[in-house]
Every structure is written in structure tokens, then in C-alpha cells.
Amino acid sequence: MSEKKPYFDERDEVSADDVVIATEAQFDETTTSRTGATALRWVLTLLVCALFAGAAWLLQSLAVAIVGVLAAGVLFSCMHVVLEWERSVVLRFGKFNRVAGPGLIFMIPLVEYSAATVDMRMRSTAFKAEHVLTADLVPVNVDAVLFWTVWDAGKACSEVKNYVRLVYWAAQTTLRDVMGAVNIAQLSTRREQIDREVADILERKTNEWGITVVSVEIRDIEIPDELQESLSAEARAEREYNARVILAEVEKEISEMFVDAARTYGREDAALQLRAMSFVSDSVKEKGGLVVIPSALSEAFEGLEKLTKG
After folding, report:
1. What whole-number distance in Å separates Cα of residue 22 and Cα of residue 31?
2. Is the dihedral of CA 170, 176, 177, 179 positive or negative?
3. pTM of the predicted model, to two decimals?
4. Cβ–Cβ < 8 Å for 159, 150
5. Which residues cross the membrane (predicted)?
6. Would you list the DSSP string of the chain?
7. Highest mean pLDDT: which of 11-15, 208-212, 243-247?
8. Cβ pair 164, 148 in contact under 8 A
9. C-beta neighbour count of 298 within 10 angstroms
């Protein structure tokens, strides 16, 4: 008879998000090396053992040699090397005692032990939200990057089980909530505002876990192809509307200027005659030629001559 599995047990299946988290953790492990720190522990341990072995050889005492082996073992178990960018969480009788490091640290044998070593450097976590419904019910895919760091190693290890996984899921759900309150037309104009809003919400969530969020940056927003065509048509229509409005405003200004000019010409006969002479001058300026002047225009020139003489 098969045993039933409890409902609240964690599933053993590995999802795509778990693969992403595991890949990032593996990348973090391969960027640094603890070979030198481990070698230093072995060198110090072997040095103590060699000193006791030399003393046992000089004193011809087996007890000294046994004490030397035990002392070397105890030293190796209670001595740890913490790198500059790391902090070691030390427990005493299973209770949180302190955060030690960096450098060479020592712990009380059989009483204290290092439960975890936390990397305090800046981290980047890529996450995405697929098929997110915006405020106007449009499904989009959003790809973003989260920059965060651990500022309290004790809280990060004691408050949550796996803070890397927790930060990933919190970022994904927060991005979905924020995108659900934005219209599709606002995605391009409010991207920086969305980044800040997601970062602020995540900061409030993760601060109590000893984690601080530096920034969130949206890398890409995928919109369905059929919707892209509609948005493009809408943008073209809006540009054409703006162009027509600008053209109408220009024509209105020109007509007002013509009205003002007509009023000026109506008040001053000489102004109209000067304008007629300007038209004639412009017509023969470049190529020259014979200009036939109507009788009315010739009278205008005679009237202008009288005005100048008078």
C-alpha cells in the first residue's frame, strides 16, 4: 500500500524558474574561489601538528604526539577563513550568536560552529512575468533585472530558508501587480516610474529579511503582434491629426495677417501703390523684360509722383 503524500509538501519537480535560480547561484560560485582560504586552514593545522611532532620526537613521548594530533584536529574545526566580501553566521548551541568576519575567525570547539557563509556583494537576478494583464486587459511579457544585496547576514539566514529564491519570487509577483495597474499606452512613457515603483515595493518587503534592493530595470516588454499593428495605426493617426491641427493654426495666422495688411492698404493709398510697384519690380528683377502696365496702374504711378513732389 502506497503512502499518501501530505498536501503541503514541496514538490520535487524542477520548474524553469528553479533552473534560472540554480544557474545564477552556480555562476556566483564560479566567479570566486575559496581554494586559498582552505589551503591556509590546512597549512596552519599541519604546522601545529608538525610542532607537536617535533616536540614528541625530542621528548620521546607518545603522549605529546597524541595531544598534537588532537590539538590539530580541534584547531581545524574551530578555525575558519572568511573572505573580504563574506560574512560567517556563527551559532552557539544552535542559537544565533554573531556574524563574524572577514579574516581569520575562531570558534569555541563543540560549542560554536559556522552555519552559513553569506556573500555581501551586489547581486543581479533576472526575472520575467509572462502573460501579464495590464489595466486595459492586454497580455504582455515583461523581462527585468533586479539588483540587490544582503546587508544583514544574520537576518537573511535566520528569517528565511532560501533568501535567493524568496527575492526571485517576490520580484516576479511585485512586477505582475505593478504592471496590472498600468495601461498599454503608458508602458513606453512610464518605464522609469514602473522601475522605481517595483524597487520601492520590494525594498519594503525584503528589508525585514536583511536584504536591500538597489534598483530594478525593465529590459524588454513584448506586446502581441496584432496589437502592435493597432498601436502603430493609432500612432500614425495621432501624428496626422497633429499635423492637420498645426497646418490649420498656420493658415489662421496667415489669414489674420492678410486681414491686417488689407486694412492698412485701405487706410493708406500710397501703401497700396508702393506694393504694386514692388510686384512690378520683383517680376522683372531676375530675367528682365517688357512690362505692360494697365491704365489704372499708370494712374497709380502718376498719383505717387504727385505725392512725392508735393
Report:
1. 14
2. positive
3. 0.62
4. no
5. 39-58, 64-83
6. -PPPPPTTSPP----HHHHHHHHHHHHHHHHS--HHHHHHHHHHHHHHHHHHHHHHHHHT-HHHHHHHHHHHHHHHHHEEEE-TTEEEEEEETTEEEEEE-SEEEE--TTTEEEEEEEE-S-EEEEEEEEEEE-TTS-EEEEEEEEEEEES-HHHHHHT-S-HHHHHHHHHHHHHHHHHTTS-GGGTTTSHHHHHHHHHHHHHHHHGGGTEEEEEEEEEEEE--HHHHHHHHHHHHHHHHHHHHHHHHHHHHHHHHHHHHHHHHHHH-HHHHHHHHHHHHHHHHHSS----PPPHHHHHHHHHHHHHHH-
7. 208-212
8. no
9. 10
Neighbours of 130 (CB within 10 A): 12
Distances from the Cα of 165 to the Cα of 27, 122, 160, angstroms: 15, 16, 10
Q: Is 98 exposed, middle or buried (0-12, 13-18, 19+ CB in 10 A)?
A: middle
* Cell 520548474 belongs to residue: 15
Among 149-153, 205-209, 260-264, 292-296, the range scoring the smallest mean pLDDT is: 292-296
Amino acid at 166: L
Residue 117: CA count within 13 A, CB half-sphere: 14
If you average pLDDT over residues 134-148, what whole number do you get? 87
Encoded amino acid at 294, one letter:
P
Measured CA distances, 34 to 23, 82, 123 (Å): 19, 9, 19
Cell numbers 492698412 correspond to: 264
